[in-house]
């Protein structure tokens, strides 16, 4: 049965790579948030926040999947191969350039989806982007060494989304953490 599903997935990926990668990101971000809400940071007072899961899942579908499709496709074309120097270069580009861009997209999307002001979003980015970037290094540097060395280019986003489920628990927590005080908002507005 798994073999048949894997085969069907690969056929669909070949026919509609952008859509399938967006759907795998939707799945990864949705599962990550469900796990975060149910097991990591359950809110006993408010209960399960379905709209939070919708926001995270839609980010996966609308932003993570499509941008990942194009970014990793571009990266593989610009720097082909799996030699260690090539892999190290790709990991460095991913973590030093793409990672902060991704974090800004993530916090901006969530803020806009929640109806927050640009000042609130700016404060969120200022407050939490460094934590997100550094936190990413612990997961994604080793994961991307495997990714760029052993995973075929067309399977990269599936591999990333498999790991992303666990990482999304962290992102879900961080993305939904409140900015501490109005002082942060005032500082960001300056």
From TrEMBL:
Keywords: Membrane, Transmembrane, Transmembrane helix. The keyword Transcription does not apply. It is a multi-pass membrane protein. It holds the Pfam family Mpv17_PMP22. InterPro entries: Mpv17_PMP22. One of its GO terms (cellular component) is cytoplasm. It is found in: Membrane. Belongs to the peroxisomal membrane protein PXMP2/4 family. This is Peroxisomal membrane protein MPV17. It comes from Nannochloropsis salina CCMP1776.
């Amino acid at each position: 049965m798994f073999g048949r599903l894997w085969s069907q997935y690969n056929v669909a990926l070949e026919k509609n790579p952008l859509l399938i990668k967006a759907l795998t990101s939707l799945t990864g971000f949705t599962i990550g948030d469900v796990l975060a809400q149910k097991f990591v940071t359950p809110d006993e007072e408010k209960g399960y926040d379905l709209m939070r899961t919708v926001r995270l899942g839609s980010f996966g579908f609308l932003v993570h999947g499509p941008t990942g499709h194009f970014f990793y496709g571009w990266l593989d074309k610009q720097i082909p191969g799996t030699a260690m120097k090539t892999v190290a270069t790709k990991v460095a580009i991913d973590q030093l350039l793409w990672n902060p861009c991704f974090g800004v997209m993530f916090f901006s999307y969530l803020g806009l989806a929640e109806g927050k002001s640009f000042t609130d979003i700016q404060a969120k980015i200022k407050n939490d982007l460094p934590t997100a970037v550094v936190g990413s290094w612990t997961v994604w540097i080793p994961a991307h060494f495997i990714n760029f060395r052993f995973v075929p280019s067309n399977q990269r986003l599936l591999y990333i989304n498999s790991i992303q489920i666990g990482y999304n628990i962290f992102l879900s927590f961080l993305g939904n953490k409140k900015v501490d005080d109005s002082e942060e908002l005032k500082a960001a507005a300056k």
